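Below is one such protein, fold included:
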Amino acid sequence: MVDEATKRTLSAIPLLKTKAGPRDKDLWVPRLKEEYQSLIKYVENNKQNDNDWFRLESNKDGTRWFGKCWYIHELLKYEFDIEFDIPVTYPTTAPEIAIPELDGKTAKMYRGGKICLSDHFKPLWARNVPKFGIAHAMALGLGPWLAVEVPDLLSKGLIKHKECGDAAAGSN
């Protein structure tokens, strides 16, 4: 079910050990440290493989995340704001990544711009608690979603590159 490139990507993302969420005060700090280490490694790997496609940062408590992601299609870069909160039942429950500016433009999205990951990603996440973290959500959730949805949205004319007249939908 998973192709070789995905297996390689996943094997290079460090797995997490601490089963803790924001409610687990004493354990959340070590979990958050593992999250950052895993994300840093994933971003480093992406840069080495010329596959840099997102930036993330969090609030002081590591409970609210935000940043940018981008997708290159026909040599044009389409950039989007992303955001998500860490669920109170994390890591048992995966974060729901949102791209607010695409809200209502695709059926594969919930209210508020939350991308739909229920069929494929959520069962995989559930089998890998607590080993999966935010880097895994990006690699197995947002990345594949962008690869399918952005070209589809472009083909339907629902988003345009900013140089083509829609400043909110793309970037250089």
Q: What stands out?
A: The chain has four helices and five strands.
